[in-house]
Amino acid sequence: NRLHATDVTSSSFRLTWPKLLSQETGYYSLEYGPRGDPAGKRTQQVSGAHTSLVLSHLAPETTYEVALIPESNVHYFPPQTTRVTTLAEEISPVQVLISESGPHSFQVSWAPVLDSVASYQVLYGPLPGNSVEVLEVDGRHNSTVVEHLAPNTTYLVTVTAIYRSGKEKSLSAKACTQEGERGE
């Protein structure tokens, strides 16, 4: 029943603490900053009515030291402290594989599949050229089949991971369709 962090991401976390004060009896001073970096320390005043707060715009993969100091005009409360380490930055798809290539279709698959991805967009279009088609793929899947293609053509395929945080990261690969059967 003390200061702790939840909902930790690469750039934010939520602090929750027990109700020590009320609006009438005081306020909290919140101090936080990257461990070992006194210059990076920030201070914020929080109303005594609050028992939680989200800190955002933080650096990824960084340990923050957080101190909550109840400034009460009634009782003395010792400061509450905690350490929170933010998550690694969201990573882009690290490989895009093209397989099962035929004259009119090929399969696109990618890795890794991450919980932080809401959906993937697969963009593809012939090279050279500027016509692009888009397929939306659910974030739980890691492959899709692209169809209705022209034979013997090189396509540029771009897989974009759309993270729940709103960030996007992309990776591209080239794919060639097979020559069509004679008589097509």
From TrEMBL:
Xref: PANTHER family: FIBRONECTIN TYPE-III DOMAIN-CONTAINING PROTEIN (PTHR46708:SF2), TENASCIN (PTHR46708)
GO CC terms: extracellular region
Domain Fibronectin type-III, residue spans: 1-90, 92-180
UniProt gene name: Vwa1
Name assigned to this protein: VWA1 protein
Keyword Methyltransferase: no
SMART domains for this protein: FN3
CDD domains hit by this protein: FN3
